[in-house]
Specification:
Distance between the termini: 32 Å
Mean pLDDT: 90
Largest sheet: none
Order of helices and strands: HHHHHHH
Amino acid sequence: MFKAIAITIFSLVTSPGSAWKNLAIKDEEHDSFLSRFVYPLMGITALAVFVSFLLTRTTFDLQMALKETMTILVSLFLGFFSASFLLNEMMIRFFQKNSDIKVAQRFTGYTISFTMAVTIVMYLLPDFSFLRFAPLYTFYVAWEGAKYYLNIADEKRIRFTVLATLILLLSPEIIKQVMYFIMPGIKA
């Protein structure tokens, strides 16, 4: 399962066009996609955050490690579902697509998988600060996915890609900031 996740992320990074073509024809149950791709990747990301507190801090504070881990996990989980919902609504209203939340969830899950992989690396290797800009590659992954996975018309693709990238990158961050606002004690 983890090997398949790594291969999928690697193919989305190295050649998004062909990866999206393969994903479009892939016959996969939706529950299987969630339980064998999205949720494990979220779990691995949360685990990496926790482990980073063990490896990169001079003193280990269990309370701070758990707060940061849970903040990341909840923001990824709620960010995934809110981004999926917003993308589905956007496709209905602005791009004349039929409502299909499962397709929106698959698009969201595959597109943000690279962002989660970057988060894992940034927490485990904090000296690689240049990776902070790597999530911007999501734009290119969404651009290719809009063409090969969602079949967005070429004349509407740039608008869709800009909006989708903003939704995909900002949803988890907005959830995290709302959590910090509602529960200021969880901020590390």
